[in-house]
Amino acid sequence: MNVASLLYKTMRRLQARTLGQLLRGGLVRVWPFSYFVHRHYRARLSPDRWNNLNKRSIEILRDHEPTLNSAQQTVVDDLKADGIHVTTLDRLLNANGLLKELQIEADALIQRPEVRDQIEHRVSKDGIKWYVVRVFGFQPTLAVPASIASLVLDDRVLDIANSYLGVCSRIKYLDIWYNLPCDEGDPSVDSERWHRDNEDNQLIKLFLYLSDVDEKSGPLSYVRGTQPGGRYGSIYPNNPPTGSFPPDGALENDLPNEEMYSCAGDAGTLLLYDACGFHRGGRTTNKPRIMLVATYASDAALDPLTYTLQNRKQYEDLSVPGKFAIREMN
Ligand SMILES: O=C(O)CCC(=O)C(=O)O
Ligand SMILES: [Fe+2]
């Protein structure tokens, strides 16, 4: 095996998209480097450093304070109370026709030969989750289509994410996932187990189901109240940069069952949740699960932006928070 393919395989195994992530993901597994890596990232996400790294994003939020309508306020209140709010695209944005447009766009992207090839061979080229085929992938070259950008950059969505996070956030990640159906007996991988994401102290994820997702098609599940600052926010805390993966069954033993909430829903279901609270999902056994995924995080977040925007002219009319979200503004 040559060095390039060994590097590629290792990056895949460690879910690394950049050399920095590869180093971080590799060293954190090897004592004594692990000690220093944890120390470094714990310090980076400590309140003082976090506030320092977010000086500008806090300032911009202060200068462009969102005015929330009552529906948006409910979302923010739910996020603060439970870490999750489940709605639909129509209900939140009153955007008749946008779902259909996004489904057509996603379908065209899925039909591209590079994506079809992964689906036919039943293996994703990116990451440890072999069954999650990504339309843009870890090294995206394809530009994000306008309809997708218009949803994730909608001021109403940004205002919710920013009000919850307390900063003018950046969209760190954007993709469409096509989860291949698996056999029930296949071993669980990575985010199918309960976990807290590792990237920041708080993190808003937007999932928009583009296919109907029932109990067997890998719905996201969330343990309400486990978001940082929530009633169970400090149980099995995040240990940056590795997040938190408690032993199987531990959360079921320690927390009330009714807090474990499974988000099955038809196409058009929109989830907004803090991924630093416990969640899991993605294992479908009956049909592909297709969804749009976006992540909103602060300037202290560990990972770089991972999507490609071309035709930058189309972003000239964005609001200040919109421009900030995609680094058209620093
Ligand atoms: O695929 C899922 O439902 C969960 C994915 C996940 O853990 C994440 O995006 O952080
Ligand atoms: Fe996650």
What would your notes on this structure say?
The chain is of the alpha+beta class and 330 residues long. The protein has one domain: q2cbj1_9rhob like domain (Jelly Rolls, Sandwich). The protein contains 13 helices and 9 strands. Strands 1-7-4-9-3-2 form a 6-stranded antiparallel sheet. A 3-stranded antiparallel sheet has the order 6-5-8, with no helix packed on it. The protein is globular. Bound molecules: 2-oxoglutaric acid and fe (ii) ion.
List the helices and strands and how they pair.
Elements: H1 3-13, H2 19-27, H3 33-44, H4 47-53, H5 55-63, H6 70-82, E1 84-88, H7 89-93, H8 98-110, H9 113-120, E2 132-134, H10 146-152, H11 155-165, E3 170-179, E4 204-209, E5 221-223, H12 250-254, E6 260-262, E7 269-274, E8 279-280, E9 289-297, H13 320-325
Helix pairs in contact: 6-11
2-oxoglutaric acid (AKG) is lined by residues 191, 197, 205, 220, 275, 279, 281-282.
Bound molecules: 2-oxoglutaric acid, fe (ii) ion
Proportion of residues in extended strands:
5-15%
Average pLDDT, rounded to a whole number, is 92
Label the CATH architecture: Sandwich
Q: Helix fraction? A: 25-40%
* CATH superfamily annotation: q2cbj1_9rhob like domain
Question: First CA to last CA: what distance?
Answer: 42 Å
Adjacency order of strands in the biggest sheet: 1-7-4-9-3-2
Q: Over the alpha carbons, how many angstroms does the gyration radius reach? A: 19 Å
Characterize the overall form. globular
Q: What is the H-and-E element order?
A: HHHHHHEHHHEHHEEEHEEEEH
Total helical segments? 13
Main sheet specs = 6 strands, antiparallel
Please write the CATH class name.
Mainly Beta
Domain unit count: 1
| Low-pLDDT stretches | none
Secondary structural class:
alpha+beta
- Topology-level CATH name: Jelly Rolls
Number of strands: 9
